[in-house]
Structures are given as structure tokens and as C-alpha cells.
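Raw record, unedited: Histidine phosphotransferase
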Amino acid sequence: MSPVPAEPDLVALVGSRLCHDLISPLGAIGNGVELISMTGAAGGPEIEMIAQSVAAANARIRFFRLAFGRATDQPVGRGEIVSMLSEYGRDGRTRYLWQPEGEQPRRLVKLALLAVLCIEPALPRGGEIRVSTAEGRWTVRGEARQTRNDPGLWAHLDDNGTDALSPAQVQFALLPREARAAGRSVGWALDDTSAEIRF
């Protein structure tokens, strides 16, 4: 009997499709704003606000494309990730540090970014989120003066289903599922000043 082919990951395909389709119009808006600024026909805070909003939206789409899109072993360059995180955090109170050197498999970058999304709600007043690797294990650690300690939410990282999760919390269900598909397990720790996820 021939093996049954694996079903496509519809969630990831939908995520990739949405991000792909939104990138082009956002890019067109950004180009339009740039052309208006170059002609001098209009300017001022309104155009600057539109330009900043487009840049922020582009950064989020790039982030979501990696976090929610299709996971493969295709490498992602360090420069691309650092640039994306810099733009992603530009207007916020959280600083993002990407420490792994060189290219990394998209599958592991996806896990790291899902972990970042899990840690963000624990830092409601901002802080620092650092991604690092050592001996093949990845650590995503957030630090702040005060964290929001919600162990019930974080218990979903133990693969406890999707009950009571809101759309804004979907990463807590996706991370253990994606980690399992990559042959990894998720560990976590949460206290008054830090939140950490390991895989």
C-alpha cells in the first residue's frame, strides 16, 4: 500500500495567501506617497503619517508571513530578520533582539516568531524580547519591569487545546502544533519580570 500523502497545512496556506496579497497594495501605497513627496505637490504631517503607517503595516505583514505562513527548510537570512524586527518594533515600546548568526531554516524562524507573539502580551508596558540559540536549542526571552502573569493562557503551550483562546491569542495554539511538526517540544517559564519560551 502506498503511503497517504500529507494533507496541506491550510492555516499556513491561508496565512501565506493573505500576506502575499496584501504586500502588493501596501507597496503601491508606499510608492505613491513617495512620488507625492518627491513632486512637492503635497507634504506635511498628513503625508508623513501615511508613510509611517504604510511602513508599520509592511513590517507587520512581513512578520506575519514568516510567523503564520508555510514552514519549510528554506533558509532565511539574518539581515532580513533583523531588518524586519527593527521595522516591526519601531513605533512600539518593545525592543527586539535577534542573536542567531547566519541563515536559519524558515521552520525554526517561524517557531521563534510565534514565541515572540506569545511573549508580547506578557509585556503590556513594553520591554525587551531576545531570541538566542545554544547547542541547537532556541530560547525566546522577554524582560520587563513588570510582566502580566497569566499561567492559564500560557498553559496552552503545553498543547492543551484551543478552548477560551481569542483570535489575538491563536499563537498559543499554533506554537506547540508547529513545534511538534518540527520534532521539538516547547518549554516555558513565567515570573514577575520575565517570560521565556524554549524549543
